[in-house]
Description:
There is one protein chain. The protein contains one helix and no strands. It is mostly helical. The longest helix has about 35 residues. It is rod-shaped and about 50 Å long. Keywords: Membrane, Transmembrane, Transmembrane helix.
Amino acid sequence: MIEVNANAELALAICMVMIIILSSPLLVGFFKSRKP
Length: 36
């Protein structure tokens, strides 16, 4: 159970990092487009 939980937490952390990395360019472009 401990190994499964650790793997689940690791997978969740990796997913969160990937989402942040993928969304960063979109957020940067969004804020840049809002500036005059």
